[in-house]
Amino acid sequence: MGPRKTEPEILETEWDILEALWQAERATARQVTEALIERRGWAYSTVKTLLDRMVDKQLVVGRQVGNVWEYNAAMPRQKAQRWAWRRFVDVAFRGAVAPTLAFVARETKLSKKDRSELKALLRELDQSAEGESDE
Predict the structure, then answer these.
(1) Is the pLDDT assigned to residue 102 strictly greater than 60?
(2) In whole angstroms, how far apart are CA 67 and each of 20, 33, 64, 83?
(3) How far is residue 2's CA from residue 4's CA, in Å, rounded to a whole number?
């Protein structure tokens, strides 16, 4: 089995642009600039440069429509989040998921509601796993 295909690293600034594209589904550099003006305050030229770099990294797809370029995210949000999570677990916890979850639970000081939801999810996963072993 060969090495796992690695996705390009997504930088913090790129997450912001991807977020704007996921919300809009498709947008011009000007529209992305407007969407991020309060959060980042970037000039149009900065956004255009970042989008072009993201096209090179295959994080974003660009296509020319008339004299304007439109962009959309090259991957769905969930895939990007899955990649970021996997990278975090692999790098910070050497791939060990349970210690990662324990760390997150302790460090984020989960609310009573969050703990309750997490317990319900774990029960659901246990029941699902029991159902699979019966087949």
Answers:
(1) yes
(2) 22, 18, 7, 34
(3) 6
Q: How far apart are CA 119 and CA 113, in angstroms?
A: 10
Calpha distance 35→4 (Å, rounded): 35
Looking at the predicted structure, is the pLDDT value of residue 6 above 70?
A: no
Q: Considering only CA atoms, which of 4, 1, 3 is closest in space to residue 82? A: 4
Q: Is the distance from CB of 7 to CB of 83 less than 8 angstroms? A: yes
Q: Distance (Å, rounded) from C-alpha 65 to C-alpha 69?
A: 6
Looking at residue 1, the DSSP 8-state letter turns out to be: -
Task: Give pTM, 2 decimals.
Answer: 0.79
**How far apart are the C-alpha atoms of 104 and 116, rounded to whole Å?**
15
Q: Which secondary-structure segment (H or E) carries 34?
A: helix 29-36
Q: Please, are residues 73 and 18 in contact by the beta-carbon 8 Å criterion?
A: yes
